[in-house]
């Protein structure tokens, strides 16, 4: 093919505003359960236009199968939505890790304040063997990643174990504080 049969980027963007192509864009967004009421609607429409224009540029004089264009738009928006979801998930996970680290710090302060691990010895009978082993490793200075590697499990599994210990610890320390 010669370069004269291809269309320019500017022409491809202009074509993306044609009603037939608009229907492809809005149809793909609708099938992905996106609506104009969502705050990222304009960004998604713009991404769909860019995906459409890039495919139109590759075609001869802008002529290309509409079902193929629809699938390209759909996949591009789906990839974008999934990457946003992963990013939000990582941010939520990071903030949960920060909260758990803060709680660990508070538990360490309680441990240091009461000395002689009296409270942790009182807490240990409430814990499972695995939770007791985790607490021993944590108090020995191991981090969650190191414990996960040593136990051949995921870091998320170790975090879940820590959350359960913290929950039991909160219950215990609240009951202990109420008694005193």
Automatic annotation (TrEMBL):
Source superkingdom = Bacteria
> Which GO terms label this protein's molecular function in UniProt?
DNA-binding transcription factor activity
GO BP term (any one): DNA-templated transcription initiation
Q: Which NCBIfam families match?
A: sigma70-ECF
Q: What is the protein's name according to its record? A: Sigma-70 family RNA polymerase sigma factor
Annotated source species? Candidatus Limosilactobacillus merdigallinarum
Q: What is the lineage of its organism?
A: Bacteria, Bacillati, Bacillota, Bacilli, Lactobacillales
């Amino acid at each position: 093919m010669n370069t004269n049969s291809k269309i320019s980027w500017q022409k491809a963007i202009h074509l993306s505003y044609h009603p037939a192509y608009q229907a492809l864009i809005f149809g793909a967004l609708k099938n992905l359960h996106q609506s104009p009421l969502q705050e990222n609607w304009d960004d998604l429409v713009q991404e769909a236009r860019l995906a459409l224009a890039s495919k139109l540029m590759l075609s001869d004089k802008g002529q290309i199968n509409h079902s193929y264009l629809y699938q390209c738009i759909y996949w591009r928006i789906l990839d974008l939505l999934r990457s946003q979801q992963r990013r939000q998930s990582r941010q939520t996970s990071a903030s949960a890790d920060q909260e758990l680290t803060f709680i660990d710090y508070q538990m360490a302060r309680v441990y240091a304040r009461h000395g002689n691990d009296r409270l942790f010895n009182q807490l240990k009978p409430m814990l499972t063997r695995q939770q007791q082993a985790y607490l021993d490793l944590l108090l020995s200075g191991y981090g969650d990643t190191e414990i996960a590697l040593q136990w051949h499990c995921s870091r998320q599994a170790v975090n879940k174990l820590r959350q359960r210990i913290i929950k039991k610890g909160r219950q215990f320390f609240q009951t202990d504080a109420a008694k005193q």
